[in-house]
Design a protein that fits this description.
The protein is α+β, with helices and mostly antiparallel strands and 212 residues long. It is 12% helix and 30% strand. It contains 2 helices and 14 strands, in the order αβββββββββββαβββ. The longest helix has 22 residues.
């Protein structure tokens, strides 16, 4: 009898895990996060710790803006700017992302190994006050990420619709952080940080506005 109860409990736990995986996960669509995420992969979310999201996490959220321009659709991007951070993009033919963390006067360059080979034609300066590209800018301008928002970019720089297009992503519209790759089975596992890191900048940068 005891063995039967153990088997039943194990079965129920297994079914709970399956249901959680199905309803707490999403299928990647599009190429905006290549090579980190590939279209068709199924990703498990952690929806319970949105207050613990960190820089460089992969998050799923609802794209802001009018529906006719993509607003309302689910997107997955990498967090670059946290609330209170100041962010900018400068650099001409090879754009460079800069971050000054909230409460700090230090400036860092964001090194993402995926970006340099995926620039394409997306070489504009940034940012407008809403965190988007400034098409007429001659240099990168610093902008502060609002306290209730994130500034997010795709790993596929030239093929991603992200904060450069739709601005800041409200934290309230984030479904959760990507936690585990479920499918394909051969790629099952976590993501790590993708090799993305901050590198301190100690000298003035051509094409970048005055330090924040």
């Amino acid at each position: 009898m005891a063995v039967g109860w153990v088997a039943l409990v194990a079965f129920l736990l297994a079914m709970t895990a399956v249901v959680a995986a199905l309803f707490g996960s999403f299928t990647v669509k599009g190429r905006s996060m290549e090579p980190t995420l590939v279209s068709g992969e199924r990703i498990l979310l952690d929806p319970l710790h949105n207050d613990e999201i960190e820089r460089f996490d992969l998050v799923q959220g609802v794209e802001p803006g009018p529906e006719r321009f993509g607003g309302g659709s689910q997107v997955v991007k990498r967090v670059i700017g946290m609330p209170g951070d100041r962010v900018a993009i400068a650099g001409g033919d090879l754009p460079v992302v800069y971050v000054s963390p909230a409460g700090s006067e230090d400036v860092f360059r964001v090194d993402n190994p995926a970006w340099p080979t995926r620039i394409g034609d997306e070489v504009g300066m940034c940012c407008e006050r809403d965190g988007t590209y400034d098409g007429s800018a001659a240099s990168g301008a610093w902008v502060t990420v609002p306290k209730d928002s994130l500034w997010v970019l795709g790993d596929n720089w030239g093929g991603s619709t992200d904060s450069r297009a739709f601005g800041f992503l409200p934290v309230a519209d984030v479904s959760g952080a990507a936690w585990l790759r479920l499918l394909p089975a051969g790629s099952f596992g976590g993501f790590g940080d993708g090799g993305v890191e901050l590198v301190e900048v100690t000298e003035p940068v051509a094409g970048l506005g005055a330090r924040p």
